[in-house]
Amino acid sequence: MLQSFPKFLCRPVHLSKSWRFGFACLSSLAVSSVLFGIALPTAIAQVDPNTGFTGIQIPYTAVAPTNGAVKIHFVNETGSAIDYQVIDDTQYRSLPGRSQMTLDNLKLPTTFTFRRADNGFLQVTLYPNSPEPGTLTMRVRETPNFSDDRTTVYIDEQGKVFLN
Fold it and tell me: What domain range includes position 103?
């Protein structure tokens, strides 16, 4: 399989403790993007400290920063309070159920963490550049599904938004 990809599209990666290394190759989408000059989103490499697995995360969306900063408009549609913090910017705060707030002038990169006070799961919907450029609107609602639960938004220097 490795021979079917040009060497410049493959690189060795650490897969797990049982495998010394493997090769990660770009998909046909990436091959066509190289051939036709289509830009792919920048990804963030993540390493699981327990397994050593290296994964790549693609940005969920992007927001247009204004002077290297963004706003986050946070809408809590749950009936529970949500505790939140902007890492290295604010202390933990609490947003009552069925309310909203806006955090202004968040310098990039920034990490916004949040969780329900009752430890329930949250489903997040992001609206970039809404209602104005440089603003990320986040709507959170209850979900019974662990697989839908999200508690962190990271925005990099270019405004790419990663949801975890």
Answer: 61-163
87-92 average pLDDT score: 94
Query: Could you give the percent of the chain with pLDDT greater than 90?
Result: 65
**Rounded to whole angstroms, what are the CA distances from 134 to 37, 110, 115, 152?**
27, 13, 24, 19
Q: What is the pTM of this model?
A: 0.69
Find out whether 109 and 156 touch, Cβ atoms under 8 Å. Answer: yes
CA torsion through residues 66, 112, 110, 16, sign: negative
Please name the residues in contact with 117: beta carbons below 8 A apart, sequence gap of 6 or more. Answer: 80, 81, 82, 83, 94
**Alpha carbons 71 and 65: distance in angstroms, whole number:** 9
145 and 68 housed in the same domain: yes
Residue 41: asked if its preceding bond is cis (omega within 30°), the reply is no
CATH of the domain at 99: 2.60.270
CA distance 158 to 25: 26
| 88 plus 127 within the same structural domain | yes
Quote the tokens at residue 137.
């609107």
